[in-house]
Design a protein that fits this description.
single chain; 90 residues; mainly alpha; 3 helices; 0% strand
Length: 90
């Protein structure tokens, strides 16, 4: 079994997932910054960063769902029309 994917397929996946990666990095940054505020004893900074983390996490999940819906829509439009059967044009 081959574990590597072709270069064109990998590039296609990374082009569409750029906002997913950015969202994950922003979420991680907020989490780390909030934990550093916790260690330093700055509760206001910690709470602000934890709230920002929740917002960033929600936007990341929304971007992932939007990407999934877009990919399904794009795949459905590429599918050729049936040439036989009940859905074929007469």
């Amino acid at each position: 079994m081959r574990l590597t994917m072709p270069l064109a397929q990998a590039e296609d996946k990374t082009d569409h997932a750029t906002c997913h990666y950015a969202g994950c990095l922003i979420t991680t940054g907020c989490l780390v910054s909030g934990l550093m505020g916790f260690v330093a004893g700055d509760s206001k900074h910690m709470q602000r960063m934890m709230r920002a983390r929740v917002v960033a996490q929600g936007l990341t999940v929304a971007a992932m769902m939007g990407g999934l819906i877009y990919a399904a829509y794009k795949k459905e439009r590429k599918r050729p029309a049936p040439t036989f059967g009940p859905l074929a044009d007469k």
